[in-house]
Amino acid sequence: MCAVAYGERVGYASGPIAELAGELNPIGGTVSHHILNSLRTLDGEGATTYSIWRVPAGERSPTRMGETFIQAGGSAQAMTVEARVMTSDGTARLFTVGRQEPVKGPPTTIWINDRAQVTVSSNEVFTAEEAAVVFLTFYLTDTVAQPYQLREFDLGVGG
Are 10 and 62 in contact (CB under 8 A)? Predict the structure, then answer.
């Protein structure tokens, strides 16, 4: 079962990936289209976050996140992507996702909503289209794959 959260709204789906597309997106379409369209709704004001996670086996509540998840916050033009993934030592840790490219310029502030913000490097700012690739890979594999890099999330930086 996979859960999807939009800000404070939560939806969920169960079943094999072939069935999941219709359940994630009640009007039909593919999982990738659903993810992209959901990320495009982020505006940094009212529609502020998008998250997906696998609901633990035997769990009935889609509102309780599993050990791993991926989330985005900000706007469709400039968002940050964070993932809680299993590390080689068997623990789940939270990371900011970035592209493997040199950092250009000063840090960027991404407004999650009118009260919360996060500061990230230039290689950690994504458009909805760029983030959709990261989300789809996570949806299929429960991890963030190459060519992306992970920087352990620092709760003392930004919002």
Answer: yes
pTM to 2 decimals? 0.78
Dist. CA 50–CA 7, nearest whole Å = 6
b (16+ CB within 10 A) / e for 110-121? bbbbeeebbebb
159 found inside a domain: no
Q: How many domains does the chain have?
A: 1
Mean pLDDT, the chain, rounded, equals 78
Domain range enclosing 39: 2-143
- In this predicted model, which residue has the larger pLDDT, 121 or 45? 121
State whether the Cα torsion 119-120-125-131 is positive or negative: negative
pLDDT at residue 28, rounded to an integer: 55
Residue 155 lies in a domain: no
Is residue 118 pLDDT above 50, yes or no? yes
Domain-located, residue 158: no
Q: 85 with 92: CB under 8 angstroms?
A: yes
Identify the bridge partners of residue 54 per DSSP, sorted by sequence position: 2
Element (H, E) at 111: strand 108-111
